Q: What sequence folds into this?
């Protein structure tokens, strides 16, 4: 068993797999995606679909956080620049 195999998420049932994916690290998700890419059949296709949905969800959250951060900084900035006068 290689180090990548140790990171693969293994769960009994698709619901448990989905829950395990939500709690997994990025490395675990990557290793799991690679594992199921090499498999064929309905079960492998379903696992690949669940992994893809988790990756898309994480990318959407990261994008939303970056956008929200920029909007928050812009909202906190004063509407005009203050300058000291002597």
A:
């Amino acid at each position: 068993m290689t180090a990548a195999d140790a990171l693969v998420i293994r769960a009994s049932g698709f619901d448990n797999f989905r829950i395990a994916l939500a709690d997994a690290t990025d490395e675990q998700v990557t290793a799991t995606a690679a594992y199921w890419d090499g498999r064929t059949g309905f079960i492998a296709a379903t696992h690949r679909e669940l992994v893809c949905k988790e990756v898309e969800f994480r990318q959407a959250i990261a994008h939303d956080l970056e956008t929200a951060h920029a909007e928050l900084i812009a909202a906190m900035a004063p509407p005009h620049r203050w300058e000291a006068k002597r």
